[in-house]
Amino acid sequence: MKNKKADTLEDAIARLNDGATMLIGGFGIAGVPEILIEGVCDRGLRDLTIVANNSGTHKTGIARLLAEGCVGKIICSFPWAVESFVFKELYEDGKVDLEVVPQGTLAERMRAAGAGLGGFLTPTAVGTDLGAGKAVHEIDGKEYILEMPLKGDFALIKAREVDARGNLTFRMAARNFNPVMATAADYTIVEATTEVPVGDLDPECIITPGVFVDCYYIAGPYVPGKEEGPRS
Amino acid sequence: MSEPNRLSRDQIAARVALELQDGWLVNLGIGMPTLTVNYIPEGRDILFHSENGIIGMGPRPARDEDIDPDLMSAGKGPVTLIPGGAFIHHADSFAVARGGRLDAAVLGAFQVAVNGDLANWRLPNAISGSVGGAMDIAAGAKRVFAMMTHTAKGGEPKIVEALTYPLTAKTCVSKIFTDMAVVAVTPDGYVLEEVAPGVTVDEVVAATGAALTIPDTVGTIAA
Q1: A76–chain B nearest CA distance, Å
Q2: Looking at per-residue confidence, does A187 or A28 come out higher?
Q3: End-to-end CA distance of chain B
Q4: Is the residue at B145 inside a domain?
């Protein structure tokens, strides 16, 4: 069996490189691979393109990546939350680029990339600022715009359980973008809460099969406030 | 600043809740629409969808110690899962929304146009906006109910002939619930269905930025 387990955080993120496009799971505080992100910050990478639902909140996670100058561009659906003050300041100073994508289109662009599709037609954003310049197709009398796949060089995923084959389960609404992102990157790295022996996971309940996982790291449960300052 | 006869946010939510029918799957937008969950009439089985992957979202836990950081609404508030609820990933969640599975979406609005166009994601003078799931949900739901104050701060009408704010989705809104009235969006234009207690038809007409058909009988919002 291919060894997918990284014994250290450093090993888990060793392949990441400057300029990479990185898909990062999570919605709000649920399902964010906080430990992996901290590792990326510590590596001091530059010019990353981050794909996530938000532009980072408060001072940790993606917000810390931004604050430390690792990010050149963010592709997300919800950049202007009150808590995204780090992003706001950098954006206003012209230090980071932004692409706003409707949330369902963001998920489906990654699904398309993971599924080997060359794009898809969606009714979302027809006639809006976010649909401007995109090809419009009429099918059965309804308008759709053409959206392109969105592929990552890397995906950083948060899972609940993992086994040695990389099979994953998730917890509650912490599932969110994680399974679709796992399919959409050349190299998918998982931060899991616990590892279980192969065969222990009910095959009917595996959400992401290990074929979509390249590497996993057992981080244990994330404890807010463990290392520095207030988190949320 | 608010006029004496205007409905509160909770009173509007209570009126919207009456509109949600037994057996419906409903998405509530962030902000004022989330209050609707608190006013569902007894005995109505309504499933709430939250775009971050919850079908069967229930109210906030009764006790703070039961709050789970992995169980939050799209508005990032703590919620519960009802018996028989399910978790799905984001691509499936928007298959629900875009695929026409939502019987209704209750969304906040900056403006609604007479053809049902909705503006709710970005202010005209802003460099950008936080669209979230609004465009997908508005484009995909079977019905969109706009829930808003009747006028903007300063009295500017939000029910208008044509949008001056950036479009979220075309011809999607079927009914508007405000602090003054319930207004249907029909192929023949706006129709005033109900007024809030103590609000006159003339006041609603004056606060509306487009022609309003006044039927022979206009109901009063139960509040």
Answers
A1: 8
A2: A187
A3: 21
A4: yes
